[in-house]
């Protein structure tokens, strides 16, 4: 989930914003809030949110100074400024510092606020996918397709982030804001295979790569792909490939002896 922090000295505005927005719709959760810029900075250092929604005029430290500190420490953080009409010049200063936008406090019921949330969600997702592509260009992200609906792209990203965890369709559907049945139908239609088949292929692909290129034990490889019983991992791998993991490893190393990378 994308982490969000809300900073505003008006308690009603702060808590109201946290309670009324459907954050899960955008794969977000509010992890912290603060009543002024100084406390906001302390909370930011503790939680490292990807999105900060902050009022401009606050006691102790205003939102512009908070935005300045955040952008210096974490330039990729999305900052949305909350302003009143009289704060326009401050808002413009915030934009120059790198804030992504500003919105009037009277406009929470308008589409503009939700459009910002959707924009931030899409930008963060794309950034994470690009980073994953750069780190693992030939492995887990090879199935990502930008034509897939946003919830499906988010689901694939959630799965590939950590294959060691068991991902059920119920859990992933909840994370992307869909019912299980709607998610399963949309996933199969978009990807061309069921959620279960897709995740099994991802695990098999990752396990095969690890067998070919590392000296990890079968138990360690099984744990990395979510099969935590070493004996079951061997049976599962043979059922999928027709070879035991050990046989597969030896065969591949004979064919590609230079691919092997020892693990320190």
From TrEMBL:
<feature type="domain" description="Response regulatory">
    <location>
        <begin position="3"/>
        <end position="120"/>
    </location>
</feature>
<dbReference type="InterPro" id="IPR011006">
    <property type="entry name" value="CheY-like_superfamily"/>
</dbReference>
<dbReference type="GO" id="GO:0043565">
    <property type="term" value="F:sequence-specific DNA binding"/>
</dbReference>
<dbReference type="InterPro" id="IPR051552">
    <property type="entry name" value="HptR"/>
</dbReference>
<dbReference type="GO" id="GO:0005737">
    <property type="term" value="C:cytoplasm"/>
</dbReference>
<keyword id="KW-0238">DNA-binding</keyword>
<dbReference type="InterPro" id="IPR001789">
    <property type="entry name" value="Sig_transdc_resp-reg_receiver"/>
</dbReference>
<dbReference type="InterPro" id="IPR018062">
    <property type="entry name" value="HTH_AraC-typ_CS"/>
</dbReference>
<dbReference type="GO" id="GO:0000160">
    <property type="term" value="P:phosphorelay signal transduction system"/>
</dbReference>
<dbReference type="Pfam" id="PF00072">
    <property type="entry name" value="Response_reg"/>
</dbReference>
<dbReference type="InterPro" id="IPR018060">
    <property type="entry name" value="HTH_AraC"/>
</dbReference>
<keyword id="KW-0902">Two-component regulatory system</keyword>
<feature type="domain" description="HTH araC/xylS-type">
    <location>
        <begin position="153"/>
        <end position="251"/>
    </location>
</feature>
<dbReference type="Pfam" id="PF12833">
    <property type="entry name" value="HTH_18"/>
</dbReference>
<dbReference type="InterPro" id="IPR009057">
    <property type="entry name" value="Homeodomain-like_sf"/>
</dbReference>
<keyword id="KW-0597">Phosphoprotein</keyword>
<keyword id="KW-0804">Transcription</keyword>
<keyword id="KW-0963">Cytoplasm</keyword>
<keyword id="KW-0805">Transcription regulation</keyword>
<dbReference type="GO" id="GO:0003700">
    <property type="term" value="F:DNA-binding transcription factor activity"/>
</dbReference>
<protein>
    <submittedName>
        <fullName>Response regulator</fullName>
    </submittedName>
</protein>
<feature type="modified residue" description="4-aspartylphosphate">
    <location>
        <position position="55"/>
    </location>
</feature>
